[in-house]
Design a protein that fits this description.
Helices cover 36% and strands 16% of the residues. It is an alpha/beta fold. The chain has two domains: 2-87 and 261-294 and 307-344, 3-Layer(aba) Sandwich (Rossmann fold); 89-255, Rossmann fold (3-Layer(aba) Sandwich). It starts with a helix and ends with a helix. Bound molecules: SN-glycerol-3-phosphate (G3P) and magnesium ion. It comes from Piptocephalis cylindrospora. Pfam families: Hydrolase_6 (PF13344), Hydrolase_like (PF13242). InterPro entries: CDP-alcohol_PTase-I, HAD-like_sf, HAD-SF_hydro_IIA, HAD-SF_hydro_IIA_CECR5, HAD_sf.
Length: 348
Amino acid sequence: PVPVFRRWLGSASPTSPAFAFDIDGVLLKGKRVIPQAKQALMRLTESSPPIPYILLTNGGGITEQRKAEQLSGLLDIEILPSQVIQGHSPMQSLVSQYGNKGVLVVGGDGRETQNVAKTYGFHRTLIPEDLHRWEPSIWPFKRTPTAAEDERVSYNLSDFDPARDAVASIMVFHDSRDWGTDIQVCLDVLTAKGGRVVGDRWESGLTQQVPIYFAAHDLVWSNEFPSPRLGQGGFKVALETLYSSLTGSELKCTVYGKPNRVTYEFAEKVLHAEARRLGLPDQPLHVHAVGDNPNSDIAGAKAFGWESYLVRTGIFKGPPGENDPNHPADHVVEHVDEAVLQVLSRPK
Ligand code: G3P
Ligand code: MG
């Protein structure tokens, strides 16, 4: 009922158009730019008045500042950090709960991801490599780092000493680069009494001791490879399956990112701020969401009442003229620029 109401309301009162673009499969394929991407964004910037847009990705592992710099370089167009929403961006709201508690940050390039958490205000974090360095037998199949690498993974025990301090939560910020270590360490922490990883945890009656948060749960995503790649959701399924095999109970997870409502609420606030930055009148936005993943981009947009466009440059590869059977988009388009042109050509 919500989307219908929102759309009906939208048509009855004046609205301004706005866009939320997915990144992987819509603007980029790995490090390669999708040919129509730059043109599509330029049209919005050059439109009079300009049309606000955000880049709404389930990816992450770097700061919004760095992501904006990377995208600006690749697309040759200025993207501001305030226009970038990654899977973990709305997790900043967890700082009030965990800012000064031990947080195990998982995924991406360890220290870089930890730095993202730090910029959000999580001050007592550790990464799975820290626990491996502290006690290599925690996952004996991981190669011991060389001296050069050791420097990179070194950490200060006074910040977080596993023998002394408790992990209060696990936050998976991005795709795991080392599923073996990460799954083992997450299982250890999840079942650690009071979040203390020291001691024998494999006793009967294991229960979840620590909450776990995921920045996204895309089973697959789209890069240069011809078929979709396993994403953070793949890691989540593997962890959940192992957790339930070991404990006999279901792992309770909180998930951010598309298609979850919390991310759309965050995104709509960011879009309104972007509209204000562009000097647009303060009125409701009619948001057009362009994505390649029916399960996240289209399902999420539809549930939130945004108009949805499914491109054929990423995960979705249905035959021409067909829509996704489970989460049909409002429009199926060849590429991102077709979506933008459709909106711009509508009578104002
Ligand atoms: O790791 C990135 C992937 O999960 C999805 O990215 O931009 O398609 O939401 P995106
Ligand atoms: Mg995508």
